[in-house]
Write a structure and sequence with these properties.
Blueprint: E1 7-12, H1 23-31, E2 34-38, H2 47-52, E3 61-65, H3 73-94, E4 98-103, H4 113-123, E5 128-132, H5 137-145, E6 156-160, H6 167-176, E7 179-183, H7 189-198, E8 205-209, E9 217-219, E10 234-239
Parallel strand pairs: 1-4, 1-5, 2-3, 2-4, 6-7
Antiparallel strand pairs: 7-10, 8-9, 8-10
Helix pairs in contact: 3-4, 6-7
């Protein structure tokens, strides 16, 4: 096998609807010998694998990588190292030339693939790494709710909500930007909604959960969620009323 022929393509699958996979992403999936996906916590199909299940061929090899959704670096770093090892080994053991790494949303927006892409060249200097972008969860949520994200000179901020626990700072951001998108908001939703209520932004906020999946929840009256914690795959979009269209 030509050492320079190996390619790994990260494909953003979008928020969960199989029809939101881009044509370019679908072609890469169909052409791949190896399909790398995060492993589900319960041992079943991961969200990524479930989304593409209807497009896979029996001849393709699916390799499930254990990548925990935690914040502890002592768990994350070894998992990234192990996943990078498994990816490179799979090419060598199977004589494969084309592989795809599948993930929700976009690979370069808070995606685990960022950390794998740093480690794979250390193990295989000839591996070509490509990225195919995906539809973001907040774009899909806004489209479903016909909710304007930004117009003309509006300023928008995108934050990983579970890492943002300073409520005064959060309120300052909501006042500073026309739109603020809080991703992975479930575990801190109660605090976020309390801040939204204090600023009088409840009527111009929307909540999305597993958008594009069969379990989807879309709530335009976020007040009904006050005091709740929700799943990891969730988001809150907050927009100033004077700029909401």
């Amino acid at each position: 096998m030509d050492q320079t022929s190996r390619t790994l393509t990260a494909v953003g699958l979008g928020p969960g609807d199989p029809e939101l996979i881009t044509l370019k992403g679908l072609r890469a999936i169909e052409a791949a010998d190896l399909i790398f996906v995060p492993r589900s916590r319960d041992g079943g199909l991961s969200y990524a694998e479930r989304i593409v299940s209807g497009y896979l061929r029996p001849a393709q090899t699916v390799i499930r990588l254990p990548l925990p959704m935690v914040r502890n670096a002592d768990e994350l770093v070894p998992a990234w190292e192990s996943a990078a090892d498994a990816i490179v080994s799979a090419y060598e053991q199977r004589g494969a030339t084309k592989g795809v790494y599948l993930l929700l949303g976009d690979p370069l927006l808070f995606g685990t693939f960022i950390y794998l892409a740093e480690r794979i060249p250390v193990r295989d200097a000839y591996m070509q790494i490509d990225v195919i972008p995906g539809v973001t969860s907040f774009a899909a949520t806004a489209a479903k709710a016909n909710f304007t994200l930004a117009t003309t000179d509006d300023r928008i901020a995108i934050l990983p909500a579970s890492y943002e626990t300073d409520l005064p700072a959060l309120k300052a951001l909501m006042q500073q930007f026309d739109t603020v998108v809080f991703l992975k908001a479930g575990t801190v939703l109660a605090q976020l909604l309390a801040a939204v209520d204090e600023l009088g932004l409840t009527a111009t906020s929307i909540y999305g959960e597993k958008v594009g999946m069969p379990e989807e929840t879309l709530e335009t009256d976020v007040s009904v969620l006050a005091g709740q914690n929700r799943p990891y795959l969730s988001l809150l979009i907050v927009r100033k009323p004077e700029t909401n269209a």
